[in-house]
Amino acid sequence: MTLKETLWTMAASLVTGLVLALFAVIQSPFNAITSLIGVGVVIMYFRKFDRTGHRVTFVIFGILYYLLSVFMIAAYQYIPAQT
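Given the sequence above, the corresponding structure tokens read:
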């Protein structure tokens, strides 16, 4: 995997993880937009890279970024603000 492929994989999986986390957090009419953005990123990535190793790496890092993003959003929402 070259540096360019690695950067594309990290960027696409980061965007997908963040969009999935937003899908889980925001309310009904707007989460449809986030799901469409996520599907668009996945389709774009899978068209660009057709090897199995790239796709598996993308899915694994997408899941990791999703879990990290959900944790950070939940911590931001539920930690009381200091006044």
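The helical segments are 3-25, 28-48, 52-78. Try to locate this feature in the token string yourself.
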